Amino acid sequence: MSHEHVSNIGRIWKVFGILSAVTIVEVYLGIVKPDFLFMNDFLGMNILNWVFYILTIYKAYYIVWAFMHMEGEKSTLRSAVVFPVIFLILYLLFILLTEGDYIYEVFKNSSIKWNF
Amino acid sequence: MESTVTTANSEEKTWGGNNEPMGASYGKLMMWFFIVSDALTFSGFLAAYGFSRFKFIDTWPIADEVFTHFPFFHGVPAPMYYVALMTFILIFSSVTMVLAVDAGHQMKKNKVILYMFLTIIGGVIFVGSQAWEWKNFIKGEYGAVETKGGSLLQFVDKDGNRVALDDFAADLGEVRTQLTRDKAKWFMSEPSLPSYSVAEVQAGFKAHPELLIRTEVLNKEKQKTILSRQDSESRLGEAHYVVEGANLIRNEYGNKLFADFFFFITGFHGFHVITGIIINIIIFFNVLIGTYEKRKSYEMVEKVGLYWHFVDLVWVFVFTVFYLV
């Protein structure tokens, strides 16, 4: 195995603290739903939802990097895992969400009634 | 540069074996392969959920109003607290897993045993919580009616609080027996009947002038639209089906696809957790009987750990998509 085996217990608990704190912030925002975030839209989604997604990706980073020990792997492995996933997910989301929004517009603006 | 070179003797015998591409052992690399493909599967599901939600963005259910249960606090609305607790349990079991891996690196067998055990317990509690969540979701709380056009009507009082069918539906003394295969003329049957018929709900609604109807449509304040009494009565005339709880065909929370995606995605995730628990138990017993002590490497614990963290990672996204957004 390539990486040295020093004990990481301190870091593990630190990451646990970060993940817990972010989750608490998420739940707090989800219950309070501050108007200035919830009522304002940015690129078709309200800002509160953007905040949630950014915090989620922040948590995902810590899970993959610290818990799955991605930080100790070689950069080829890191790139081989992370880049295809990010690219394919963004691509898929772009296509599906654009299409979903288009169908919504068709239902809304044309004479087709929502009947199913 | 190190990244472009394979680990063991790169000058010769590159193809002769004993080589570890990307510096990871065969098993670990294959686990990463699996995780990447599984991550894409889950992304496909979540993106499909996003697609359907964007398609019905004006009428999608509000998650806070759906998941409001907390054990031993019956009737107290507690949005999200329970699922936040579940998230903590899963994150914590991830922590014990990574502690087990860490102890494995230092060849401390007893510590690995303890942490693996805690991880398994955490996983079992999580699956149990998920089952409880499903139970509440399937059972439902208030009930609703579906119109001929397929949209869903819920009942509220003057202050906008939800009212359950039990509280107002009239008893017309109707007796309807469920059509079963043995009584049918042909191969016909129907699912179990709801507690009230449409006529009973309509009669009860007439008798309670304080009730109003809430539609699925979201208004400017991003709340569900509440109709006036007059509109409510005319809208209720279109009712043709009483919905209680949730199944794969219809649910009392709103859009039909909402329950379908909920069952499918959290179910698929729950299946992963169960698989993870089983694999963890196998590895746990292998640690107990000293397999890895003899092998002088706890790498198996690390590999199953990767899978377990992946399950946690997926949950972080499911949590956001279903409960927060």
Automatic annotation (TrEMBL), chain A:
Pfam families: COX4_pro. Its main location: membrane. One of its GO terms (cellular component) is plasma membrane. This is Caa(3)-type oxidase subunit IV. Signal peptide: none annotated. Keywords: Cell membrane, Membrane, Transmembrane, Transmembrane helix. It is a multi-pass membrane protein. It comes from Flavobacterium weaverense. InterPro entries: Cyt_c_oxidase_su4_prok (IPR005171). It is found in: Cell membrane. The chain crosses the membrane at residues 12-30, 50-68, 80-98.
From TrEMBL, chain B:
The chain crosses the membrane at residues 29-51, 80-100, 112-132, 261-285, 306-324. This is Cytochrome c oxidase subunit 3. Residues 1-325 form the Heme-copper oxidase subunit III family profile domain. Keywords: Cell membrane, Membrane, Transmembrane, Transmembrane helix. The keyword Heme does not apply. InterPro entries: Cyt_c/ubiquinol_Oxase_su3 (IPR024791), Cyt_c_oxidase-like_su3 (IPR000298), Cyt_c_oxidase_su3-like_sf (IPR035973), Cyt_c_oxidase_su3_a-hlx (IPR013833). Belongs to the cytochrome c oxidase subunit 3 family. GO terms for cellular component: plasma membrane. It is found in: Cell membrane. GO terms for molecular function: cytochrome-c oxidase activity. Its main location: membrane. It comes from the Bacteria. GO terms for biological process: aerobic electron transport chain.
